[in-house]
User: What shape does this take?
Amino acid sequence: MNGPLALGLVGLGLVLLAAGAEALVRGAAGLARQAGVTPAVIGLTVVAIGTSLPELVVSAMAAVQHQPDLAVGNVVGSNIFNIAVVLGLTALVRPVGVHETAVRLEWPAMAAASAVLVLFARDGEIGRGEGLLMVLGLVLFLRYLIRVSRVEAAQTAPAPASGASSWGASLILVGLGLGLLLVGARALVSGAVGLARVAGVSERVIGLTVVAAGTSIPELATSIVAGLRGRSDLALANALGSNLFNAVGILGLVALLHPTPVSAELRRFDMLWMMILTVILFPMLRSGRRVSRLEGGLLVGVYLVYLALLLRPGS
Assistant: This one.
């Protein structure tokens, strides 16, 4: 792939991702009203899983093609990017409000999923049995979350809306948004990887940076649009839910397809940074019930430090 073609794909991908994020946020908010659940739950389920589909496709293909560093690096790098860049940039654009369940349920679930990933990877491979446990754990958590949300929504919110925001219109918007996000992410990743290959970057670094950032652009676009529209609960739930789904859903499914080796560098360095950022995020969620612009800038700054260490000669 030549340089101009790669740059064209990157540009096309960004345009499609922006349009897809707008449609997805509108459709997800409509689904929340129709289903009688909170927007946060839609963010943790429909939106988070939908925007994580690029990571699933890339990691599954990489595992099948015997590129484990790319498969695992994509997920670990995406989780780092989601906390540091997605939430960081969203907060810089507009401070992100923190709903009660984010502190009480969503962050703990995300942290537990990340810890499970580190635990299962400690012996250098995520096997099929471990993958099955990860997927089952995710399914059980989502069932519990939806049940709890329905109770809370019934107590605090009006009855499900009808009329203009119909089920059909909301589903069409969600489907359109997810389709545009997938096509846009594929174009963006193809172009970005083409540029990275020309520079002779290693598979692990490509997975952690170019591919991880490219497949996380849907989360970034969706969260920023949600924040601008005053749906910070959806923006935060999208980032937390995507990390949860990435850690146990994507790598769990990938391991079921093909036992996935995890390199020493990923275990020793990159997963450590994933856990550091997870821990740093918690006091930000508790302080003032919002992630401020200052805290958003701090998250982006931490990501730049991580990149500097990752890309240093001999790393």
User: Anything to note?
Assistant: The mean pLDDT is 82. The first strand starts at residue 96 and ends at 97. Residues 3-35 form the longest helix (33 residues). DSSP finds eleven helices and four strands in the chain.
